[in-house]
Design a protein that fits this description.
Elements (H helix, E strand, L loop, with lengths): L3 H14 L7 E5 L2 E5 L7 H9 L11 H21 L4 H15 L18 H19 L11 H5 L5 H37 L4 E6 L2 E7 H25 L2 E2 L16 H13 L4 E2 L3 H6 L2 H27 L10 E2 L17 H25 L9 H25 L5 E2 L1 H9 L5 H8 L1 H14 L3 H7 L5 H7 L2 H5 L14
Parallel strand pairs: 5-6
Antiparallel strand pairs: 1-2, 3-4, 7-8
Helix pairs in contact: 1-2, 3-4, 3-7, 3-9, 4-5, 5-7, 7-8, 7-13, 8-11, 11-12, 11-13, 12-13, 15-16
């Protein structure tokens, strides 16, 4: 018995896609016949998938980059088949034009199969084959479903299999999503760098293990955020290049059965031309058809980026905590009321939502890793869940970085007076004096300063260890925050 949710979806489709007075069309496959909405561009395979995979309630159209990538693959295959003489020019042209429609954003509402589906993506592949065929028929003046003129399998899917088109389309789509993320990541990196320049010269206390450490500048802290994001940008850019290796032409398991031996290279060349990206055919198509390593690489690198970004957001929340009982070193821009009961409370909601995205990305990476391990023999059947995880995580991360940049980083201000007071009374400056007065005296004076709240500088001078002039030089902001060590001649002046 069909899932009632799928039946409800199907009935709504019939009502929406069948104009008043129009009769549903009938299509037949090896399992029997079905009525389909007269206006639907999808066919019987999709109809069955709607019954079988009423899982998430989210159609594959929620990932437009996947649709674009698949349209590019079908277009490249049609051009290659025409070039090789295994598909007539008229049908190839109709397929080509239908793919252009999809790439332009039309017909996206016809890609209705659930993102969660069994069958290694066959339902997605057939969704494309059927929509392209019926759009081609429409362009040629034929009714939908008259597949003797343009068939989803014999013509649109000529020389192909789900097992080579799906991973290839996924890689093309991921290139697009990654490019969008890399653009946003670069903007976020620059926002932190700009904010660092704004904070130049503001000295603060650095911390290790949440305990006072040594002085630094707020500029150094924010430029550190920028540098770590720059490293992630470089890593993700390298991963994006690895997506250019495809197995199109492998057909079922990599042997190229049912395809012209020249098809793989012809399709590769057309796909490179269509996408404008470096596309290469894998050296071993059998290995490439079963290998999903690049998807693990994308996911793992994205997870690493998410974790580093989440750590930055943890720091921002700590530095902005308070305003009275926390660190209160920086002010995060107030974006919305923070409590339904505590008047005036404002929470760090932007860093928090980025944290939440990072948690989702980490969980998605676990899902993808398990799916990759579950592959068997000549194929991994779990490409759809990998696609779902990757496109979802890329979308979330791109949006999270945008809101962090626009709604948080750009509006951060420094609490200069509070930072100055902390530095003035900071016992940890004794670390800068240790090469000049020795570790044991420095430790003794640090304990005394903490116990009496006395000034470190006063204690050092009173002990006769350094003069006031020497202290002013050694404790200048430049020396405290730029890592100057013992210079030539310093040791001779040590007491």
């Amino acid at each position: 018995m069909a899932d009632p949710r799928a039946e409800e979806t199907f009935q709504k489709s019939i009502h929406t896609l069948t104009p008043d007075g129009a009769s549903p069309r009938t299509e037949t496959d090896g399992l029997g016949s079905r009525q389909l909405p007269a206006g639907a561009y999808w066919g019987i395979n999709v109809s069955r998938a709607l019954d079988n995979f009423a899982i998430s309630g989210r159609p594959i159209s929620v990932y437009p980059d996947l649709l674009f990538g698949y349209a590019c693959v079908k277009q490249a295959a049609a051009r290659a088949n025409a070039e090789l003489g295994v598909l007539d020019a008229t049908r190839a042209s109709l397929i080509d034009r239908a793919c252009e429609d999809i790439k332009a954003g039309r017909l996206h509402d016809q890609f209705v199969v659930d993102v969660m589906q069994g069958g290694a993506g066959t339902s997605t592949n057939m969704n494309f084959n059927e929509v392209i065929a019926n759009r081609g028929l429409e362009l040629a003046g034929h009714p939908k479903g008259h597949y003797q003129h343009l068939d989803p399998n014999d013509h649109v899917n000529r020389s192909q299999s789900t097992n080579d088109t799906y991973p290839t389309a996924l890689k093309v789509g991921l290139m697009l999503s990654l490019e969008r993320l890399l653009t946003e990541l670069l903007l976020l990196e620059q926002a932190f760098r700009d904010k660092g320049q704004e904070f130049a010269g503001i000295v603060k206390i650095g911390r290790t293990q949440l305990q006072d450490a040594v002085p630094m500048t707020l500029q150094q802290e924010f430029e550190g955020f920028a540098v770590t994001l720059s490293e992630e940008h470089a890593s993700l850019r390298d991963v994006a290049r690895h997506l250019g290796e495809i197995n199109l032409g492998a057909t079922a398991i990599g042997t190229g059965i049912a395809a012209d031996p020249r098809f793989a290279e012809a399709a590769r060349a057309h796909l490179a031309d269509i996408t404008g990206r470096p596309i290469v055919t894998a050296p071993d198509l059998i290995e490439a058809t079963t290998d999903v390593g690049v998807f693990m690489e994308v996911s793992g690198t994205l997870k690493r980026t998410a974790m580093k970004l989440s750590k930055i957001c943890n720091d921002l929340r700590l530095l902005g905590s308070g305003p009275q009982a926390g660190f209160n070193e920086i002010n995060l821009p107030p974006m919305q009321a923070g409590s339904s009961i505590m008047p005036g409370k404002v929470n760090p909601v932007i860093p928090e939502v980025v944290n939440e995205v990072a948690f989702v990305v980490a969980g998605g990476d676990v899902t993808l890793t398990m799916a990759a391990e579950a592959g068997q023999l000549q194929l991994n059947a779990f490409g759809p869940v990998m696609a779902h995880v990757l496109f979802e995580n890329l979308k979330y991360m791109t949006a999270a970085m945008a809101t962090l940049r626009v709604n948080c980083v750009r509006g951060i201000t420094a609490n200069k007076e509070r930072l100055a007071r902390q530095v003035e009374s900071f016992v940890g400056v004794i670390t800068a004096l240790m090469p000049h007065i020795g570790y044991a005296p420095a430790a003794r004076l640090a304990r005394e300063a903490l116990a009496t709240n006395a000034s470190i500088a006063d204690l050092v001078v009173s002990a006769g260890l350094l003069t006031r002039e020497q202290l002013d030089e050694l404790l200048s902001p430049e020396r405290l925050t730029r890592g100057h060590g013992v210079e030539a001649g310093d040791e001779e002046g040590m007491h």
